[in-house]
Amino acid sequence: MDTGRTSDVRVLVVEDEQLLADAVATGLRREAMAVDVVYDGAAALERIGVNDYDVVVLDRDLPLVHGDDVCRKIVELGMPTRVLMLTASGDVSDRVEGLEIGADDYLPKPFAFSELIARVRALGRRTSLPLPPVLERAGIKLDPNRREVFREGKEVQLAPKEFAVLEVLMRSEGAVVSAEQLLEKAWDENTDPFTNVVRVTVMTLRRKLGEPPVIVTVPGSGYRI
């Protein structure tokens, strides 16, 4: 597995080539990221105004609202969101211009997907405070870089969403995390907020972590470790 913090990174992919956009989103989701997708600049501005994203993968040449204007709006709003700008042009002057308007990184097309993943991970790390490389709590060790979990020295195999939920809970350092917060951090906006996916995921996560239970349900509030 590639290295890097991924499971609590929320990404907006903005790309008018729908096949490319959907392929990028699918690949990022396989890395346990929560990903939303839009195909034009106007829709991007709408989503940015509603949701908090760690990273926006932004095509520069967009319909309705140009990618440059989307980037400028993110900067104008003072958002902590990082922008990875994509372009079909490989000219240095084009890259420099994109960075000057506020993009945090630049990737010309065509690109290697492994490089896109690495750049999104790096930008995602820059949106939050530094955290220990290995999280430890209640006899559990979670390594976000290696995507490994151990309980009392025994490795626990988790599905991507189970890993994401466990990481969010462990990063909260004992604070209660609501189901809504887990949905926001570990899933994308297409998930029905009334679904029982959080409850089911927590149930399977508890089973895999074994006895005694370490995930506590706080009635009416959420979960904590």
Automatic annotation (TrEMBL):
Residues 132-225 bind DNA. SMART domains: REC, Trans_reg_C. The keyword Phosphoprotein applies. Gene3D superfamilies: 3.40.50.2300, 6.10.250.690, Winged helix-like DNA-binding domain superfamily/Winged helix DNA-binding domain (1.10.10.10). CDD domains: REC_OmpR_CusR-like, trans_reg_C. InterPro entries: CheY-like_superfamily, OmpR/PhoB-type_DNA-bd, Sig_transdc_resp-reg_receiver, WalR-like, WH-like_DNA-bd_sf. It comes from the Bacteria. Residues 10-124 form the Response regulatory domain. Signal peptide: none annotated. The modification 4-aspartylphosphate is found at residue 59. This is Transcriptional regulatory protein CutR.
